[in-house]
Specification:
This protein is α+β, with helices and mostly antiparallel strands and 276 residues long. 32% of the residues lie in helices and 19% in strands. The strands form three sheets. Strands 1, 4, 5, 8 and 9 form a five-stranded antiparallel β-sheet that branches. The radius of gyration is 23 Å and the shape is globular.
Length: 276
């Protein structure tokens, strides 16, 4: 599985001067955005995947738009924030190379941040829905070995990643229900950006590789048990998003890190028991 990176559907607010300052909040180390999700009971009754829509706002004043935020800008931003806190940033050389690959976005970002201190954002031109949507597990999506050999003499892999119409139609229905809520509240109207049948060319990878070594107590239905131990090999463990049974909608990194820490504690406890 992967998260389906999709930007589709547009929201037109009834008041294009609505205060949207609540939507983005910043801490010392992170930029936070509020996502729009359906209540759990609605997702269950509609049999929908666990999707969340984030609003990409286009402002009348171009200086307040964030379309420059690519990998070069993120690398530059990370470096400057670390230096501002008096800390030595990690992976300095790597991040400087990333900045050097696309300096234009960094120049645009710096100039816009300066202009924002002088000029207001103006009216809201449009709001697009963007999300890393959940994808349902599909047994036909596979990672297999092929006959090509790499520089180390190992067989290369073939990725057969499949996106189904049902994944996109679940996202379409999510947008429909969110749009109805906006309409009922008199806040605006939604223009659906996902057709039925859907255009799968709208989908890009979220770079969140999930699945293939599924966790399950039954060896016939999963690869690892609840402690991430491979069913067929007593001393082999796997910690990562490959053991997830479903993808969810959030970035998987915090969860897989927590899983790795949990596994480390489990292995330490096992080793201590053997010593005592």
């Amino acid at each position: 599985m992967d998260h389906l990176n999709v930007t589709a559907s547009r929201l037109a607010l009834a008041d294009d001067q609505t205060d949207m300052s609540f939507y983005e909040q910043a801490t010392e180390t992170a930029q936070l955005r509020i996502g729009l999700k359906l209540p759990d009971h609605v997702k269950r009754s509609e049999k929908l995947l666990n999707n969340a829509a984030f609003m990409d706002i286009t402002w009348e004043n171009q200086a307040h738009n964030d379309d420059f935020r690519d990998h070069a800008w993120l690398a530059f931003s990370t470096l400057t924030k670390s230096f501002a806190r008096g800390q030595a940033p990690e992976r300095v050389a790597e991040r400087l190379c990333t900045v050097a690959e696309a300096p234009g976005s960094v120049i645009t970002g710096v100039s816009r941040h300066l202009l924002r201190k002088v000029f207001g954002s103006g009216r809201i031109s449009s709001i697009a829905f963007r999300q890393d949507a959940e994808q349902a597990p599909d047994p036909d999506s596979r990672v297999t070995l092929n006959d090509e050999i790499d520089a180390l003499g190992l067989r290369r892999i073939t990725l057969d990643w499949r996106v189904s119409d049902s994944d996109m139609l679940s996202l379409r229905r999510t947008h429909e229900l969110i749009g109805k809520a906006f309409g009922s509240a008199g806040l605006g109207r939604l223009q659906l950006g996902i057709d039925d049948p859907p255009d799968l060319d709208q989908v890009f990878t979220g770079y969140h590789h999930i699945g293939t070594t599924r966790m399950h107590d039954d060896p016939r239905q999963g690869v690892v048990d609840a402690n991430c131990r491979v069913h067929s090999v007593d001393n082999l463990f796997i910690a990562g998003s490959s053991v997830f049974t479903t993808g969810g909608t959030a970035n998987p990194t915090l969860t897989l890190t927590a899983l790795a820490i949990r596994l480390a504690d489990h292995l330490a406890d096992e080793a201590l028991m053997q010593l005592t």
